[in-house]
Amino acid sequence: MIPLFHDFTDETVLVFGGGPVGARKARRFAREARAVVISPRFVDADFGDAERIRAAPTPDEVGEWLERHDPALVVAATDDRAVNDAIVDEANEHHVLVNRADRAGGREAGSVVVPATVDEPPVTVAIATGGTAPVLSKHLRKELEETLEGTGAMATVLGELRQELKARNVPEEHRQALVTEVVNTPEIWTALRSGTANSRQVIEDVLDSEQPPAGESP
Q: In the structure, what pLDDT confidence band is assigned to residue 215 with cuts at 50, 70 and 90?
């Protein structure tokens, strides 16, 4: 299995199942996509910003729901194996990504696994154990939350710094050396994590260090 990232902005994610698993999936995808949950009942109070439709599709009716909503991803999270089987079959028939939530291992080829993630925007780290040990994924996520503190700010610094150095026609090799030096400087990491310096300050300090001393030509 090869991990990929997928941008669901302006896409629809169709979730079948209104239980705790369906609610968790809906909350996750509703942060970026238009999430629609289909279920005869909703046992969890929190579905985020997902739209909820009260219905109980039979296996023969699943395809109609896919055609109606044209999703980029379908989640099979019902407690009915026959319905989940139909969801996977119809998703494959319609060439739509599918995440089967009732099966930890032995997934069909082409299925999607939704991993545990640690977000430090714009940095995202995904963790998966192949369905063998979800509790380990949760443990690693907690460990990484502390380790990754400040990486979002550092990514912002590096991205903006690269653009400004490029705009100043700094040679590529030297740009790379400066960016590498920044990411390997413990004091900068400490400043970003503690809030004693912001991204703009770090960038200005690096750019100032590139200015020739007064009276000298560049």
A: very low
H or E segment and range at residue 214: none
Q: What is the pLDDT of residues 31-80, one digit of tens each?
A: 999 999 999 999 978 999 999 999 999 999 999 999 999 999 999 999 99
Closest CA to 62 of 95, 30, 38, 33: 38
3-state SS assignment for residue 153: helix
CA of residue 192 relative to chain centroid, distance = 23
CA dihedral for 196, 198, 200, 202, sign (positive or negative)? positive
Q: Is residue 48 within 8 Å of residue 35, measured between CB atoms?
A: yes
What is the C-alpha separation between 160 and 140, in angstroms, rounded?
A: 30
Condensed to tens digits (0 to 9), the pLDDT of residues 190-213 reads 999 998 888 888 999 888 887 654
To the nearest whole number, what is the mean pLDDT of the chain?
A: 91
Q: List, in sequence order, every beta strand (DSSP E) within the chain.
A: 12-16, 34-39, 51-54, 73-76, 97-100, 116-120, 123-127
Task: Tokens for 152, please give them.
Answer: 């979002």
* Cα-based distances in Å from 148 to 30, 71, 116, 172: 24, 33, 15, 28
Domain 12-114 CATH (choose: 3.20.20.70, 3.60.20.10, 3.65.10.10, 3.40.50.720): 3.40.50.720
